[in-house]
Write a structure and sequence with these properties.
The structure holds two protein chains of two kinds.
Chain A (H helix, E strand, L loop, with lengths): L1 H12 L10 H6 L4 H31 L7 H23 L1 H7 L2 H4 L4 H13 L3 H29 L11 H15 L9
Helix pairs in contact in A: 1-8, 3-4, 3-7, 3-8, 4-5, 4-7, 8-9
Chain B lengths: L1 H9 L4 H6 L15 H6 L4 H25 L8 H23 L1 H7 L10 H11 L4 H31 L1 E2 L2 E2 L14 H27 L1
Antiparallel strand pairs in B: 1-2
Classes of the chains: A mainly alpha, B mainly alpha.
């Protein structure tokens, strides 16, 4: 039951992009076309799921076991950078189609704050191993959802008459605000 | 903020422009759209924005300085991991400092202090500037960019605080008759306020350009 709650919370109620502001850079940068938004969302979900498992293991079997919590940030970021590199090599060897589809988005994930944010939130909330992985998957799906909705709106926006100074990033941010407002409607789903 | 750019155009010192460009022409938040996560997440009040900004000032100047010192020694292939480790070290220092001396602020900012590690402003400056320039120039560049970032954060936090809580840096500025806009303190308020700030900057730039042409 608690696992389901964590999942729903990460996807809708506490959406990583719209409530925690994590992963805003790709959210603004890669939300012009639905196809690229889907690819980016897929890549991020993949890395989020993997890193949620690995950072949990690092946190519990190295940082807590050896009592070196001050190494948390350094070790998390190194693991994430190495993981993204590894995933990139793995996908390139196994599936050329997937590699081409993800393209430039894969290496960019290292500096996506959603990944490090997930590791930090997971450690802060003291999730169990399974809970942490579900949290990772949920966060990834939530990110994809927000990104795809945004891309859909921005494709239509090309036809809209936007005031000159608000064109580009400004109107995107305002739309994100309205989306965040809409997502607040999900708050009643979970009482906590 | 507006007048500083004119100074930058006329100064004869080479170091002047490096310092000043971060405030307006190359403002990391409003022009380059970097470091959006902390910008939006922590600016529920002016003091939170200021704290976050100063933390970034420390991390960015410290790491830029070190990066420019080691730029000749580090092999090209491993430079990004090296930069990230240097940055993460400075962030850990800030985090421990805040926990020791300003516990309330540290709690308010939560995981967004450690998230400075992946703030693209810092890695961006390390890669684009500090790895190619002398220590002094990197220091000036880092100071300018991070103070520009701080200024943006304080303004954004200030607007949200005034409209959302009727206060500015904790002081009452609006009368009781003004109904606080709670939405300004919630995530949508952050997105919308920043969106309009971007719009305002574009408008000012456009007006200024028109005046120059006439």
């Amino acid at each position: 039951m608690e696992v389901i709650l964590i999942f729903v919370s990460a996807v809708l109620v506490n959406n990583f992009v719209l409530a925690y502001f994590l992963g805003i850079c790709p959210f603004l940068g890669v939300s012009e076309k639905i196809e690229s938004a889907v690819s980016m969302g897929f890549a991020v979900t993949f890395v989020l799921t993997l890193s949620s498992a690995i950072t949990w293991l690092i946190n519990h079997y190295i940082l807590i076991a050896f009592n070196v919590p001050f190494l948390e940030y350094v070790s998390f970021i190194i693991v994430i950078a190495a993981l993204v590199q590894f995933v990139e090599m793995f996908i390139r060897k196994t599936s050329k189609t997937l590699y081409d589809a993800l393209g430039i988005y894969l290496p960019l994930i290292t500096t996506n704050c959603a990944i490090l944010g997930l590791a930090l939130f997971g450690a802060l909330r003291e999730y169990s191993f399974i809970q942490n992985i579900v949290f990772g998957i949920g966060a990834g799906i939530g990110f994809t959802l927000a990104l795809v909705i945004m891309a859909g709106i921005r494709e239509d926006l090309e036809l809209a008459d936007v005031p000159e100074p608000l064109k580009g990033a400004a109107i995107t941010l305002i739309i994100a605000g309205l989306l965040a407002l809409a997502f607040m409607g999900f708050a009643g789903l979970i009482s906590a | 903020m507006g007048s500083t750019e004119n100074l930058g155009d006329h100064t004869s010192m080479r170091s002047g422009p490096e310092f000043i460009k971060g405030f307006w022409k190359e403002n990391p938040t409003l022009v380059m759209l970097l470091g959006m996560c902390p910008t939006l997440a922590v600016t529920t009040s002016a003091i939170n924005g200021l704290t976050m900004g100063l933390a970034v000032v420390f991390v960015l100047t410290g790491s830029s300085f070190i990066v420019s010192l080691v730029r000749g020694i580090v092999p090209k292939q491993v430079r990004i991991p090296t930069f990230i480790v240097i940055i993460a070290t400075f962030v850990t220092m800030v985090d421990i400092f805040l926990k020791a001396f300003l516990l309330d602020l540290s709690k308010a900012l939560g995981p967004f202090i450690p998230l400075i590690v992946v703030n693209c402003i810092i890695l961006g400056r390390a890669e684009a500037f500090a790895s190619k320039n002398t220590a002094l120039m990197s220091l000036l560049d880092a100071l300018g960019v991070s103070l520009g970032f701080t200024a943006t954060l304080v303004i954004l936090g200030g607007v949200r605080e005034v409209l959302g809580m009727r206060t500015f840096f904790g002081m009452k500025v609006l009368s009781e008759g003004f109904e606080p806009w709670i939405i300004m303190l919630l995530p949508p308020g952050a997105f919308i306020t920043l969106g309009f700030m971007l719009g305002a900057k574009n408008l000012i730039d456009k007006k200024r350009k028109e005046r120059k042409e006439h």
